[in-house]
Design brief:
The chain starts with a strand and ends in a 14-residue tail after the last helix. A hairpin with a 4-residue loop joins strand 14 (156-167) and strand 15 (172-178). It is 10% helix and 37% strand. The protein is mostly beta strands. The chain is globular. It has a 6-stranded antiparallel barrel. The chain is built from 5 helices and 24 strands.
Length: 311
């Protein structure tokens, strides 16, 4: 059984399970986001949030946000209802695909880096469309059979402004200021040390728009100018995901692009996840976190209110 390295301690999957673009209007369409290239390397290591109990990982999960179109959230009796479809039907997947019956609502992923600041990929948001996105915490499965259907108001935030953004092959990042300070959640820690080839990684986010998943067993392949290449099990919807160093749980970078998500199975006449050997395919590209660190260094926090607002 494949092992996972979290916080420098080697656990088996079984033990962990029990113990714990310039941005176009077209890009706002959920299907376009979810089909942005990513892929599975070796074994599919994606896990549900409820399967993870290690405190450091829980804190990191609590800081991870789903970016969901505001139009798909409706406030009813102090809760936001989510308009969403199931992954299998929306993508015409083969029925044996993991998470076939789970809902899918997120376009991208982000993560809390300050009291009211979220980092994500530059192709996920810009100053023109930020107001159309909601930044949602706690979009996750409660257990194997209970999907997220509504959200507390304190889990849903809107965009006040795009503080900084870069979008090119070498740097794909954005820093967004939310409409108010985030409550009851701690920002992630950002690594001051550049990643090195062979280093183990952990990915958190919303592959294909699904409820939150955690995927370990990834490693750094090589370092490029402004980004690095790794073997994260990631899909469209993971764009903007935090990629953590497994031994410190500090963010090393932002997942931005990779290999193709799915292949069409002509024998079965359905769509299946693309699976590569660990050392094959192109790898997944991850923008270095240094761009967010530089943007944060230039910011002077301004007072914000804590009054919940409907996105």
């Amino acid at each position: 059984m494949k092992g996972i390295l979290f916080g420098g301690i080697f656990h088996s999957v079984l033990a962990l399970s029990f113990g714990f673009s310039s941005y176009s209007a077209m890009a706002l369409d959920s299907k376009n986001f979810k089909k942005r290239p990513k892929v599975i390397y070796g074994q599919d290591d994606r896990m549900e949030a409820y399967q993870v109990s290690a405190p450091g990982l829980v804190t990191a999960m609590n800081a991870t946000v789903a970016m969901i179109p505001t139009a798909n959230l409706t406030l009813k009796e102090n809760l936001f209802e989510i308009s969403q479809s199931t992954l299998g039907e929306s993508m015409e997947l083969c029925k044996e695909e993991p998470f076939y019956n789970q809902p899918t609502a997120a376009n991208c992923t982000g993560f809390l880096v300050g009291p009211d600041l979220v980092a994500t990929a530059g192709h996920c948001v810009n100053e023109f469309n930020c107001s159309f996105q909601s930044f949602v915490f706690n979009y996750r499965m409660q257990d194997q059979n209970v999907p997220p259907t509504n959200l507390a108001q304190n889990d849903v935030y809107s965009c006040k402004e795009v503080v900084a953004r870069g979008y090119s092959r070498n740097q794909d990042y954005a820093l967004v200021r939310l409409d108010r300070t985030v409550v009851d959640r701690e920002p992630v820690k950002l690594s001051s040390q550049a990643p090195i080839p062979g280093e183990f990684l952990v990915l958190m986010g919303h592959p294909s728009g699904l409820p939150l998943k955690v995927a370990g067993n990834a490693h750094v392949r090589k370092i490029e100018d402004g980004f690095f290449v790794a073997t994260t099990d990631s899909y469209g919807g993971n764009s903007g995901s935090p990629v953590f160093k497994a031994n410190t749980l500090e963010v090393a970078g932002i997942l931005v692009r990779g290999d193709q998500d799915y292949d069409f199975d002509y024998a079965k006449q359905c769509v299946a996840s693309k699976v590569c050997e660990e050392d094959k395919c192109r790898g997944e590209d991850i923008t270095l976190i240094e761009f967010i660190q530089k943007a944060l260094a230039q910011q002077t926090q301004t007072p914000v209110t804590n009054t919940p607002q409907q996105p």
